[in-house]
C-alpha cells in the first residue's frame, strides 16, 4: 500500500479521474441535462411552427433554422460549465486538489471534456428531432463529418470560454449570469433570419460576429447553401476564441492562489 | 524527517495594503499536536494556506517536513494533507465515490482504492451512508468524510483549519477523539481554532495569534497561567461590570473579597464568578491598554 501511495500519479491517471468525476456530475444533474436538450427543441418547434410560416411562407423555414438551433444547443449546454467550474473554485474541494501532488488544473479540463461529450449528445438528439419535424439535409458523409467537426470545435471554444468565466466569477450565481449574456449572440446573427433583413446599422455587428460565419458554414454543409469564405472565417473565429479562452483560464487558475 | 515538522522564520504576508501576517516565527515538533488559536481575521487560515503551498509568502522561510514551501512544493505536497475550513468534499458524489476518487488521485489502483475507501468508511463510522450522496450529509458527517479524505494517502503531517467550527457538542467530541487517535499514530497535527477549550484538549503546544503576530506560544498550562484564573465580577444596574477581581477559587479568598466589597457596595449588589473567556485571553495576551472602569 505504502509503495503505491508514495509513487507519483501520472497526468493520465489524474486526468481520467477528473473526467470521470465531471461525467458523473453531468449525468446526475438531470435538470440541467434535460434543459440543455429540451430548451433548444422547444425553440426549434416554436420557430418552425409558430414564426416559421410568417418568416418563410414556403414552409422551408425548418431547413433554414436548424443550423442555428444546433449552435444554440451548444451555447446553452456549455454555459453550465461556468457554474460547474465556479462551484469547484469557490467551494473547498479545489484546496484539497491543489495540496495534492497532482496536476490540479485537470479538474477544469475534466469539466471541459464532459461538456464536450454532453453537448455532442444533445446536438445529436436535436438533429434527430429536427428530422422528425421536416429537416431534410442534403449533406453527404464528408459534409456531415466537416459539419460535426466545426460544431465540436465551436462547443470546445465556447466551453473553454465559459470555464474561464467560471474561474473568475465570484459565485456560481454570478458565473451563471455572465454566461447568460453570451447566449444573446445567436439572435444577433443569421441563426433565425438572414442578416440582410435586419436594419442596416445592425449589419456590421451581425455579419462580423463569430456566430454568423459558423452558422453559414454549417448551413452550407448540411443544406447546400453557398459557403464561400465563411468556413475559414468560422474556423478562424473558433481557434481565436479557443486561444484567448485558454490563455485567460490558465492565467486565472494560477492567480487563484494569490487571491486569498 | 527532521525533528521539526514545521519551521517558520520571519514570515510576512500582505494582501494589497493589508498586512495579514507580520513576522511569524514558529516551530512544530514531529509527532505533536500544535494549535493555532486566534479570533476571526487573525491570519490563521492564511498561515495554513502558506504552509500547504496554496499561498506564496512575501518574506521569510517556511519549511514543512524539511522542504521549502516555495522551492520544493511537490515534496511538501507529498508530506501533507489539508482539511480546510469548508468541507472539501464533492457533494454530488457519494461518500464512497469521494474516497475512491481521492485514493485514485493518491496513486492507488482501482481495486486498492475500493478497499481503502471501505476501510476508511468503517473507521469514520460512515459505512451505513457509503452509498448516499454527500449533499444529504449532516455537518458532522461531512467533516468526518473530509478528515477521511485527508487520511487516504498516509501523510505524516495533517493540517486542520477550524475542524469543529459549526459542529454540535457530540460531533465535536467525536472529532476530538479522532484527532487524538491520529496523534497516537505519530501524525503531526497543525490545527487552528477559535476555542480555548479545544486547543487545551488537543494540543501539546499552543500559539496565540492576533492581528498577524504571535502574542503567546507555549504549553496549554503555561498559557493558562499567563491568562490567570477565575474572576469575581461586581455588577451594577443594567448588568454593567463595575469591578473585576482575580480570585484563586478558595473559600478564604472569596470570603475576604466579599467582606471587603460589602463595606463599599449596597447589600443588593450582584456578584458573579466567571472563568476566563477568550476575551480575557486576548485582553491579557495582546496587552492592549485596558479600559478603566472604576
From TrEMBL, chain A:
<keyword id="KW-1133">Transmembrane helix</keyword>
<feature type="transmembrane region" description="Helical">
    <location>
        <begin position="106"/>
        <end position="132"/>
    </location>
</feature>
<dbReference type="InterPro" id="IPR013525">
    <property type="entry name" value="ABC2_TM"/>
</dbReference>
<comment type="similarity">
    <text>Belongs to the ABC-2 integral membrane protein family.</text>
</comment>
<protein>
    <recommendedName>
        <fullName>Transport permease protein</fullName>
    </recommendedName>
</protein>
<feature type="transmembrane region" description="Helical">
    <location>
        <begin position="64"/>
        <end position="85"/>
    </location>
</feature>
<dbReference type="GO" id="GO:0140359">
    <property type="term" value="F:ABC-type transporter activity"/>
</dbReference>
<keyword id="KW-1003">Cell membrane</keyword>
<feature type="transmembrane region" description="Helical">
    <location>
        <begin position="144"/>
        <end position="168"/>
    </location>
</feature>
<dbReference type="InterPro" id="IPR000412">
    <property type="entry name" value="ABC_2_transport"/>
</dbReference>
<dbReference type="InterPro" id="IPR051784">
    <property type="entry name" value="Nod_factor_ABC_transporter"/>
</dbReference>
<dbReference type="GO" id="GO:0043190">
    <property type="term" value="C:ATP-binding cassette (ABC) transporter complex"/>
</dbReference>
<feature type="transmembrane region" description="Helical">
    <location>
        <begin position="175"/>
        <end position="193"/>
    </location>
</feature>
<feature type="transmembrane region" description="Helical">
    <location>
        <begin position="32"/>
        <end position="52"/>
    </location>
</feature>
<keyword id="KW-0813">Transport</keyword>
<feature type="transmembrane region" description="Helical">
    <location>
        <begin position="231"/>
        <end position="250"/>
    </location>
</feature>
<keyword id="KW-0812">Transmembrane</keyword>
<feature type="domain" description="ABC transmembrane type-2">
    <location>
        <begin position="31"/>
        <end position="256"/>
    </location>
</feature>
<dbReference type="InterPro" id="IPR047817">
    <property type="entry name" value="ABC2_TM_bact-type"/>
</dbReference>
<dbReference type="Pfam" id="PF01061">
    <property type="entry name" value="ABC2_membrane"/>
</dbReference>
<keyword id="KW-0472">Membrane</keyword>
Automatic annotation (TrEMBL), chain B:
<keyword id="KW-0472">Membrane</keyword>
<dbReference type="GO" id="GO:1900753">
    <property type="term" value="P:doxorubicin transport"/>
</dbReference>
<keyword id="KW-0813">Transport</keyword>
<keyword id="KW-0547">Nucleotide-binding</keyword>
<dbReference type="GO" id="GO:0043215">
    <property type="term" value="P:daunorubicin transport"/>
</dbReference>
<dbReference type="InterPro" id="IPR027417">
    <property type="entry name" value="P-loop_NTPase"/>
</dbReference>
<dbReference type="InterPro" id="IPR050763">
    <property type="entry name" value="ABC_transporter_ATP-binding"/>
</dbReference>
<dbReference type="GO" id="GO:0005524">
    <property type="term" value="F:ATP binding"/>
</dbReference>
<feature type="domain" description="ABC transporter">
    <location>
        <begin position="6"/>
        <end position="236"/>
    </location>
</feature>
<dbReference type="InterPro" id="IPR003593">
    <property type="entry name" value="AAA+_ATPase"/>
</dbReference>
<dbReference type="InterPro" id="IPR017871">
    <property type="entry name" value="ABC_transporter-like_CS"/>
</dbReference>
<dbReference type="InterPro" id="IPR005894">
    <property type="entry name" value="DrrA"/>
</dbReference>
<keyword id="KW-0067">ATP-binding</keyword>
<dbReference type="Pfam" id="PF00005">
    <property type="entry name" value="ABC_tran"/>
</dbReference>
<keyword id="KW-1278">Translocase</keyword>
<dbReference type="GO" id="GO:0016887">
    <property type="term" value="F:ATP hydrolysis activity"/>
</dbReference>
<dbReference type="InterPro" id="IPR003439">
    <property type="entry name" value="ABC_transporter-like_ATP-bd"/>
</dbReference>
<protein>
    <submittedName>
        <fullName>ATP-binding cassette domain-containing protein</fullName>
    </submittedName>
</protein>
<dbReference type="GO" id="GO:0005886">
    <property type="term" value="C:plasma membrane"/>
</dbReference>
<comment type="similarity">
    <text>Belongs to the ABC transporter superfamily. Drug exporter-1 (DrugE1) (TC 3.A.1.105) family.</text>
</comment>
<keyword id="KW-1003">Cell membrane</keyword>
